[in-house]
User: Fold this.
Amino acid sequence: MSFDVSVKNPVSRSRTVTVKLFIDGQEKSSKSLTIGGGSTGSVTLTWTAQAGEHDYRIEAWEDGKLEASRSGEITVSGVPSDLFNVVLTVYPHELEGGGEVYLQVKAWNYDRSPIQVRGFIEVDGERIKNITAEIPVNANGDSLLVFSHPLIGIGNHTIKLFLDNYDGKPNGAGEEHWSEVRVTVKTGDQLKQVTSECDPIYFKYNMGNYEATLTCRLTIYNGYSYDLKVTGDIVSDIDVSILNKYLQFPAGSFSPVVSYIDPKTIPTGGYSTITSIAHFKISKPDIFVIGDIFPYWEDAWNDIQVEGIYGARIPVKIIHDVPFDKLGIQRFTLQSRVYVEVDHMAVVADIAADALLTYKLGKRSAPIANIKFIQDILNKLPPEANWLANWMKEYAITWWRG
Assistant:
């Protein structure tokens, strides 16, 4: 790839300048030229291009002093003789203290049929995402993948994409493509929230109830010139939309979310993470106070409600008030969206068993579900032992699902 550079000399005397080309912060080419007073000179700087998104910068130097510069971005695609090409892009290219970067994989298809590709993305040599995708016919810079990734640590970070049309491994088999970008994390001058994330919520069956734990993390960067110490407990408040009514309060706590920070002393230029934990419980009526016949259909309705929550992606908002020795109370807000998952097998077994118990014990008719271990238990119970049958059902499913 060639860069044609024109340099104008605005003064009356002759000047000798050196023009340099930098790609992604590294010098790739340079040439010197002498320009007469009031004249314009030109040079051509070359670089062996690599597929991907790159930053370029052209600088003009005279006697060890930078006189002028120009910078920008370029995207290099593959050559048409390939079956396909991919390019990794990132935004932003600079962060203060850290934060989220947004990554996009663009693809070109030079073949006449869809191309299956496999590979990965890594940050500073650590794999963060595996990729299996299909490049559609006639793809011309189409978006193949978009996602965000938290990035912390002062310095330069290299993010690389690898894709091939064979086995997803850089072993020379198939047509292989690499693309890389760089992100610079600079020092800051204040206390700053840089990243936040939450794990999925997974409801497990436990003696007729469905219980889950939410864990979220928020990372803080200390850009001040002095260390900061947390002097007391963190006060947190949580909002989880449709799941608010299922939040459980820990014993002796006035909040359903418990938060702690580690380390408690944040060194200058360092990081600390606030971890928050909240518990959920979707329960049903107490089987010992309902009456002579347990309302199995109500039990099954609770299970169906749990099943309906599955697959939702709900908003999470956690507000932290953190006391610091030199700054007083500082507020940080975590906002995210999390997937809600549930143990499908437990839901199916629970609903089927409830239906079986209703017909077997309530209406004295043939069971509608063929669950052998439940039937074996029922055959050994007296008709009035409804609550015991339900308890044994719950215990069996809890033990089965771990």
Summary: The helical segments are 296-309, 344-362, 372-379, 386-401. The chain has three domains: 2-76, 84-186, 191-285+310-344. The domain at 2-76 is CATH 2.60.40.10 (Immunoglobulin-like). The first strand starts at residue 2 and ends at 8.
